[in-house]
């Protein structure tokens, strides 16, 4: 147990209920504050009303800047400020170097995998991934088979979710390339931190994150010089704040599907001066809704004819239609094999063991180890459909087993793993909450990883689910330079 005084003697100990000895970002296994966080020691020994005031300032900044997250459908939409915790997460230089190398390696492999699946299919011919498994994915876009995309770059932007599973070990939780969101919160978190921790930040040598919008713009222009726009589903989308912020900071137009039209096999944006041709779209619309003539016919937010323009090579799209195959949680199982196949390297970042009920032996294992596993639909995101075997009632277990037997390709199972906690300041005391980490990755001529990212926090000390859409909070993430 730590002998350091972490509170003022004139007030109740705010750490009195905080568990020690587990895998925690703030405390080591002996209960001592980690060197990374000693810069906060004088502040912890002060009065708690200083922390209350900082929390109040942070909430006010988020409110005034309109940093929100929407829950529910458009009919039942709840717009709320996203919960922000004022205690930053700090990553050491050594840990970041390891993560940066592993993320760059994985990003390159993801792009090669998607391009190969829609192209020569070498990895399928080699038997590294079963062909039937790929072709049965709900996220495969068969219309993209044989379609060429600019510079064969299918994945330009990725958000790869990471958890810390040991003192020096990080594992990949899942890949997000369809439309990874959250980078606007990364930028806003840093803005708030600079307001509430100015002296602390001046004493810490950390990487800046302000260059992300310019890096993103450079990635887009490197793919196709010319006029780009950000395509949003509209103000009712949960990430609309992000769409607006990125468009503004990149200096390009934010448009909805109704603002675009196909004319002479090119996409144009409607303006008061007439039609203006565009060369590229940074899309924040799910690919199934991009064109009601090619994809989902019930889409009201797409652009009729866009698919035809795309397939004739007259438009650059980031990310490319079809990249969702890499988000398939069943395909996640094979990403380490893809790294070995395409790059001839061992994966730097490990996967969580993943069991596929489509294979009989693995289905038998799942049914005999039910309480040890968490179940996920392969095509969902944001924690939707996730269920822990140990928490299911007997009727729920039978229902899940019936679903798995009926549609085994639609689900995966993974062991419930222990990952790190971090302190959250809540009403005068600190609570340990589980945290994950979403770094944002760009692929141009070379991969570039934003030296920071979105740390997401579980909604309660008992919950392992950290998604903002499931009631979680966010933290600023400081990456040290040395």
Automatic annotation (TrEMBL):
<feature type="domain" description="Circularly permuted ATP-grasp type 2">
    <location>
        <begin position="88"/>
        <end position="458"/>
    </location>
</feature>
<dbReference type="Pfam" id="PF14403">
    <property type="entry name" value="CP_ATPgrasp_2"/>
</dbReference>
<dbReference type="InterPro" id="IPR051680">
    <property type="entry name" value="ATP-dep_Glu-Cys_Ligase-2"/>
</dbReference>
<protein>
    <submittedName>
        <fullName>Uncharacterized conserved protein, circularly permuted ATPgrasp superfamily</fullName>
    </submittedName>
</protein>
<dbReference type="InterPro" id="IPR025841">
    <property type="entry name" value="CP_ATPgrasp_2"/>
</dbReference>
<dbReference type="InterPro" id="IPR016450">
    <property type="entry name" value="UCP005522"/>
</dbReference>
